[in-house]
Amino acid sequence: MIASSGHTQFNWQADQAEYTAALDKAHVRACHSYFTQYVLIDTAGHYIAVDEGDYGALPGTLADRVIDAVPGQLSDEI
């Protein structure tokens, strides 16, 4: 993550903790999903995890805010 010089150390640590929590949530959800899990930054600057299956193909407004992606772990190919 790139932090601007305007961020205080506290804000940067809070951002890192929030990003890590969203990424952890995406990894947990990916273990039980066929769909890619995405970490997005929302309009308020917070990190959230969303499931591609919730939206079908991500609309452009969401795709532009993707920070990270975790592929789904379930497969019907056995």
Overview of this structure, please?
With 78 residues, the protein is of the alpha+beta class. The protein has one domain (9-70). The protein has 3 helices and 3 strands. It has a 3-stranded antiparallel β-sheet with strand order 2-1-3. A hairpin with a 5-residue loop joins strand 1 and strand 2. The longest helix has 22 residues, at 9-30. The chain is flat, with a radius of gyration of 14 Å.
Oligomer: single chain
Radius of gyration using CA atoms only: 14 Å
In the sheet with the most strands, the strands line up as 2-1-3
By helix and strand content, what is the structural category?
A: alpha+beta
The low-confidence parts are: 1-8
Q: Mind sketching the topology for me?
A:
Blueprint lengths: L8 H22 L6 E5 L5 E5 H4 L4 H4 L2 E5 L8
Antiparallel strand pairs: 1-2, 1-3
